[in-house]
Amino acid sequence: MTRNTVVMRVIVVCAALVAPIGLTAQGHGAADAHWSYVGAEGPTHWGDLSPAYGQCGTGSLQSPIDIPRNVALSTTSIAFHYRSTPLELINNGHTIQANYAPGSYILLDDERYELLQFHFHGLSEHTVAGRPFAMEAHFVHKSASGRLAVVGVFLKQGSTNPFLGGLWDHLPQEAHQKEAPTGVSIHGIDLLPEDRSLIQYSGSLTTPPCSEGVYWNVLQTPVEISEAQVASFTAIFHGNARPVQPLNGRAFNQVTAGSIH
Ligand SMILES: [Zn+2]
Question: Distance from the CA of 129 to the center of ligand 1, in angstroms?
Fold first, then answer.
């Protein structure tokens, strides 16, 4: 089955954005063009929908990508310094996003990137040796200099995921709906696999405006999610995954294990 056939079943979302995914601090306003995952506003047309989305069509370092099986080892280091945060889920018309309170971060080669939010795609956006997973979570971080770093976590169909169970109890079903139940906290580290080995490469946002210069860190070990949990998400967003983009000669690093503090 090809990538294109598995992402065909999609819902069309045509709603003003609360905030483009991953761009909470980049100041895009209400004039942003509508986009979706299918048809005339779908991924192959994003670059034509607005001058601001030009890189979606002309960029050479775009994400997601297909990750090959064998990549070079790297001396890069990554460390996770996450804390718990009050649960705040938003349906922004393109995904379910959990906003994160300040104070959680990762260190990448000793540079600090603050965790802003994490959100979900179904199917996964990155693939491994041509195969997608059921879903993918993206933890979006930003450095003081404005650089974005995203940690990707593959979700494969299997056992019920207790962390996601806590989130899914409060899934905002409608576009622009927000759920912030009193007294409920989550800890993002609970969605990461025990083995923090990961693949790094230089890419882009996977949604318009597809800005490049994003430091991608895709964890190699998937975590499990039940069929029913996948269905709860895909009932709201079915196929919110951009197809994989050309590598254009990009190199990968493999980090064998990230530490937690
Ligand atoms: Zn994403």
Answer: 20
